User: What shape does this take?
Amino acid sequence: MPTQNIAINTPAGHELAGSLEMPTGLVRGVALFAHCFTCTKQSKAAVSVTRALASMGIATLRFDFTGLGASEGEFGRAGFASDVDDLVAAANALCERFDGRILLVGHSLGGAAVLSAASTLGPDKVAAVATIGAPSDVPHVLHNIRGDLAQIEREGQGEVTIGGRPFSLSKEFLDKTREADLLAQVEKLRIPLMFLHAPTDDIVGIEHAGALFQAAKHPKSFVSLADADHLLTKEADASFAATIVAGWASRYFDEVAAVAVPDGGITVRTGYGKFGTEVHTATHRFVADEPTSYGGDDTGPTPYDLLLASLGTCTAMTMKMYADRKGLPFDGSTIRLTHERDHHVDCDHCEEEGDGARVQALNREIELHGDLSDEDRAKLIEIADKCPVHRTLEGHLHIHTQAKT
Assistant: This one.
């Protein structure tokens, strides 16, 4: 997905480093992702989930909390309260940029943080909240800290390790983490909630999801992430979670204005990637792109893929229509197509166009399935050359272009 690096200003006066994953085409919703305790926006779950959401049309921002990754500030000073403040600042920036309500998604302690932030932001800015492996009590994270917490209580500051990494924590960090009453905040929320949790999570047990679900008011949903680990290290688990969240949240996003499509035609709009382009028909939407080897994001078929697909699909439909009408024992076809840009090099019966344009060719290989006679097969191949798209491409085709003012 196209990624934009952005900076978020906090009330504390420092900047947070963010990565905004944009859909290649139309933005159908906006989300803010909060990473796990002491992780960063580059954690596997953060990258996988936000890019998966973007692939489904949801622009998604992930960022480093204060003092982590590339963000400014001191991580060990304010703790959970600082995370919530960061989320509120980032959410306000997103709401202003996209002029609408957003989805909050949080992983592990980030899940607890988005629930707390939602109570501050309210339903005017938050459309829905989804958590992945979130604890029901914030002080639970203190069990992951290795160090003399009692000494920090006495002296006001001390060194600890979290996940094998060294940090300096303050007494204020411990106090504000212990003060957080998440279940009380969840009970007061009047925002759609979804809790995703793995029954096999050995870091934050499934009972935490049960407590959050019990405290929440409807509409609320629970999804079991069977066999997933806490950190969502498997790409398939992260993609599944994102797919479920995107589908669930779509009913709560503000309605996106439809793209006008001319009768019998399509509308094409430039997207957010280098080549990403959104295609709208009267009833469908899809993305065209270029492969990464050409500098694109590979989020959809290329223009020539679409050209070949047009000929191939029309060929298959035309042969099936003929076979059905004649009652032939036709079980379908497999059609393989390629585009040859330098056809004149090895085509002794072709001549270059008068203006020097290259002679190009579309090669079509048709495999027919079914108990067909030789006569039936010959007739179907003959019919293939009569499909409407084939006739259009081989006819006297003129393309008229005009600028719309």
Remarks:
- The mean pLDDT is 90.
